[in-house]
Amino acid sequence: MNDQSFETLAIHAGQAPDPVTGAVVPPIYQVSTYQQDAIGSLRGGYEYSRSANPSRTALEECLAALEGGRRGLAFASGLAAEDAVLRALCGPGSHVVIPNDAYGGTYRLFAKVYERWGVSFSPVPLADPAAVRAAMRPETALVWLETPTNPLLGIADIEAMAGIAHEAGALLVVDNTFASPYLQQPLALGADVVLHSTTKYIGGHSDVVGGAAVTASDELGERLAYHQNAMGGVAGPFDSWLTLRGIKTLAVRMDRHNANAARVADLLTRHPKVTGVLYPGLPDHPGHETAAKQMRGFGGMVSFRMASEEAAVAVCEATELFILGESLGGVESLIEHPARMTHASAAGSPLEVPADLVRLSVGIEEAGDLLADLEQALKKA
Ligand SMILES: *Cc1c(COP(=O)(O)O)cnc(C)c1O
Questions:
Q1: Which superkingdom, per the lineage (predicted)?
Q2: Going from the N-terminus, what domains does the chain have, and what CATH number goes with each?
């Protein structure tokens, strides 16, 4: 199965027709418990839906295939997946190197939750291998990568980071949410664990919250699966089914996100009111070459800066097609002001984002309509 191409795996991996009815889509097994033929004699390994549920298994097998990993695990949210990874791989006294522009919720998890439990962290510019090397300590358990980063679209070299982490006896965890497995496969570049907020591109339709972890080894897969069951933050059957439904079109959606975002970035770079565009597809982006090397396309996220916070807020409130809202990765285009919305929790921290920043999640509508909307909104800002 794994010799098949990404597009084919997205539609078929983990999703054989139902053996009882022939249904071509794995059903929603909306059930908590399973009949045992004798005590401990299970049909297909199912005993209780926190431990395993067939709808979730279908999603987990598909996720593992798409990331080229040994084991996929589906969680109730991206942060539940992060929490399981941290509890499985760190303990009191552990140290983690994180991006100095990590997703605000990830930063909050480290700063407000894990620090209290004795896990320390260092925010470091992950585009700078020397800075990462300097931040490594004997007790560093993980290098935590996000590439591209949310919302500054920073790029880190996954292969180089894997080398630095492994040299120091640490593991490399990559949050692959912004790229999706279609554009970037961190395990093939040396990462040990890949994380996703499946809420975003993987689900792709802004109708479900979920998370995933995929491991490079069976051993890490076992440890994470143990914690998934012991802690219980699992994806429910309906959420698993919705996410899997979204995955089937991931490749075609990402191609369109890439194309539309390139058009939007081009318009913004030429606009007199825009003072800077952050998009890895632009040749002058500091991570452009690395992104071109490790990604199949540059993704659908574009951030840009205006002359002032007021101007940034005004653009966000003036679009008609781009919906003002948090989250990203859905078919519909979204606009937001990170400093006041998604990244408000990082205010006053080393991860505070610029107040003049606007973030776009460029959807798969017709590109001309998107450009026209941005033009009219920028006129009002
Ligand atoms: C949204 C997001 C998360 C958190 O995922 P949830 O599904 O909201 O819990 C983690 N990392 C990145 C990069 C994100 O964009």
A1: Bacteria
A2: 6-247 (3.40.640.10), 251-380 (3.90.1150.10)
209 Cβ closer than 6 Å to some ligand 1 atom: yes
Q: Is the pTM of this model over 0.70?
A: yes
Would you name the residues annotated as active-site residues?
Answer: 50, 103, 175, 200
Cα 196 to ligand 1 centroid, rounded to whole Å: 7
105 CB under 6 A from ligand 1? Answer: yes
Q: Which of 253, 198, 197, 187 is nearest to 2 (CA)?
A: 187
Pocket test of ligand 1: the residue of 150, 155, 196, 342 to mutate, having most ligand atoms within 8 Å of its CB, is: 150
* 203 CA → ligand 1 middle, Å: 12
CA of 346 to the centre of ligand 1 (A): 14
Name the DSSP letter for residue 342. T
203-224: pLDDT as tens digits: 999 999 999 999 999 999 999 9
Q: Measuring CA to CA, which residue among 243, 300, 331 is closest to residue 63? A: 243
Residue type, 19: P
Task: Give the span between the Cα atoms of 204 and 143, in whole angstroms.
Answer: 28
> Could you write out the three-class secondary structure of 274-326?
EEEEECCCCCCCCCHHHHHHHCCCCCCEEEEEECCHHHHHHHHHHCCCCEECC
Nearest residue to 213 (alpha-carbon basis) of 222, 205, 204: 222
Mutate to test the pocket of ligand 1, among 144, 177, 327 (most ligand atoms within 8 A of CB): 177
Nearest residue to 82 via CA among 110, 61, 63: 110
